[in-house]
Design goal:
Length: 578
């Protein structure tokens, strides 16, 4: 279907917005009136610019507070409308969005409102313009989409239809099933926006927290499927009011919006991800040679070296680390995912506007494809062929140890990339949201969203830390263990400064809530339990550069991440080693 986006959804001047929207591959735009009013170019030039960029002007919006106004305001309202119609002719727009009246002076009379709607449609038709009537969720008397449809049907004019907005429908909890009762030809326009579920008034919720499809909690696939069954064949258009999007680069935001529409269409069509990741192939850390002995301290064995790059392979159980001796301080730079079809996974990523990164390789090296996650981490799609690139340091035999694999990785995003990251991992990698939370940090707030593959083989935690410009964006690799207590005993004995100190007050509270092994206190092991009785034991290393390790043990089907302990961990990390 044709894809459009409202200019209010991206940052910049109107011309900059149009250029970014066109570069992202959109077919059309909704011109938001404020953007036009602030633009020094006349409407005719904006029309020409859009045409040169290959963009149609699908809608001009908004026109407000018209229907149901007191009789003494009608003449003034019609005068306003005539001016807008003349402007739209100059702009080359033939569809006007009319929002339901929010004025306290509006009359609660459907017959009056319908009469006004018909009159407006008649005047618009004289200019070759149609009117799409939208029920705002906070409209004075019309705030439900089916009420708007009743008025359109009562007005009975061919140039009058409804505009359906997913936010206004779903934020009120309205059942979208009623959309199928509206003839497709009377649905003049469809606006799509997702949003997180928030307990707040709909007006500030709408004005500040909308996001692209797949970044929130609304069932947009179900709504779009119903709109299609009704026979709607017009554009899919994004209308997103978001404080972060207003500050982010327009090009990146527009591209993310296009990715969201592609993914939404595929979801409605029931298209499955062609190559869901089956596990972690490796985590690659860059930094000074050997990372200060950290892999060896954790019990990993160096099993290979790359003949042409300063990269070592370290293994323990099913966990593999690549240690890249570049960079001034340790950082997690890449993650490899085991894929049943690496080439198919790469094609899927490219179709969702995540291009394959250029990579220097010799003819003898495995052809590994990678894309960049929003924070810059490289995501590789792998089979086992990449292991042949490493010259064995010694024949690898399973060494005694308790680390069994990589449980999850946690990546801290720039604030304005948090929603983008959620959509990337959901659409490109096929991960699904598990839990979202906000954790108090001694110097701010940590927002976190956990995502995983359907079977939990791959887990990624996306964080954004709002703790000031000087704070390093921490990353961490969580290693799965079969006995965290045994690991903690060894590390306390052999590397006593490696583990993060945990305050005694934490264990006092833990004792009050559950009866746990008192040895956890001396070892610095944290504990959590879920409502089904599943248990979680975990501990942390101190931070080296931007990176730290977590060692985790899941018992009894526990699926969480010890979220209740996150604030304690953050405070301990800020305090540093003691």
């Amino acid at each position: 279907m044709r894809k459009s986006i409202a200019t209010v959804s991206v940052s910049g001047t109107l011309v900059e917005k149009l250029e970014a929207i066109a570069a992202a591959g959109f077919d059309g735009v909704e011109i938001f009136e404020n953007d036009l009013l602030a633009c020094p170019l006349p409407p005719e030039e904006i029309r020409a610019r859009a045409a040169d960029l290959g963009l149609g002007i699908d809608l001009y919006q908004p026109f407000r507070d018209f229907e149901g106004a007191p009789a003494e305001l009608l003449a003034g309202n019609l005068r306003r409308a005539e001016h807008k119609f003349l402007l739209m002719e100059r702009l080359g727009a033939d569809l006007l969005l009319l929002c339901s009246n929010v004025s306290p002076a509006a009359v609660p009379d459907d017959d009056v409102a319908a009469g006004h709607l018909r009159l407006l449609a008649e005047r618009a038709a004289e200019h070759g313009i149609r009117v799409a009537y939208e029920a705002l969720a906070w409209g004075r008397h019309v705030n439900e989409y089916l009420h708007a449809w009743r008025l359109v049907r009562l007005a009975d004019h061919p140039g009058l239809g409804v505009c359906l907005d997913s936010f206004h429908i779903l934020s009120r909890g309205s059942d979208p099933i009623g959309i199928e009762a509206i003839p497709g030809e009377k649905i003049f326009f469809l606006q799509l926006a997702d949003a997180p579920r928030l307990a707040m008034d709909v007006l500030p919720w709408s004005r500040h927290y909308r996001c692209f499809p797949g970044q929130g909690t609304f069932d947009l696939a179900g709504l779009l499927a119903g709109v299609r069954r009704a026979g709607y064949a017009g554009p899919l258009s994004l209308e997103v009011f978001n404080d972060v999007f207003r500050q982010a680069a327009a090009e990146r935001t527009a591209l993310d919006g296009m990715r969201s529409l592609i993914a939404l269409e595929r979801e409605v069509a029931g298209a499955a991800h062609p190559a869901l990741p089956a596990g972690f192939a490796f985590a690659e850390l860059a930094g000074p040679a050997g990372l200060g002995g950290l892999p060896a301290a954790l019990g990993f064995t160096r099993t290979g070296t790359h003949p042409g790059k300063p990269v070592e392979l370290w293994e323990q159980g099913g966990a593999r680390l690549l240690v890249n001796a570049t960079g001034a301080e340790p950082a997690l730079v890449a993650v490899g995912l085991d894929s049943p079809d690496p080439a198919g996974a790469a094609r899927h990523a490219e179709s969702l506007l995540s291009p394959i990164l250029p990579r220097a390789r010799t003819p003898d090296e495995a052809e590994l494809n990678a894309v960049a996650a929003p924070d810059g981490t490289e995501i590789f799609f792998c089979d086992d062929g990449w292991l042949a690139d490493f010259t064995p340091s010694r024949p690898y035999a399973e060494q005694p140890g308790h680390i069994t694999g990589i449980d999850h990785v946690a990546l801290t995003q720039p604030r304005h990339h948090f929603d983008e990251a959620a959509l990337f991992y959901r659409s490109v990698l096929g991960l699904r949201p598990q839990q979202s939370l906000e954790v108090p940090d001694p110097y701010g707030l940590l927002r976190s969203k956990a995502m995983s593959s359907p079977g939990g083989e791959v887990r990624v935690v996306v964080n954004v830390a709002q703790v000031g410009a000087d704070h390093l964006p921490w990353q961490h690799v969580a290693l799965a263990c079969d006995d965290v207590v045994a690991v903690a005993r060894r590390l306390r004995k052999e590397h006593p400064g490696l583990l993060l100190p945990i305050p005694g007050n934490y264990y006092d509270d833990l004792d009050a809530r559950w009866e746990v092994d008192p040895e956890l206190r001396g070892l610095g092991v944290l504990y959590d339990r879920d409502e089904r009785g599943g248990e979680f034991l975990h501990l942390y290393t101190v931070t080296a550069g931007r990176v730290f390790f977590e060692l985790v043990q899941r018992i009894g089907g526990y699926q969480g991440y010890g979220a209740g302990n996150a604030a304690v961990r953050l405070a301990a990390q800020h305090a540093g080693p003691r």
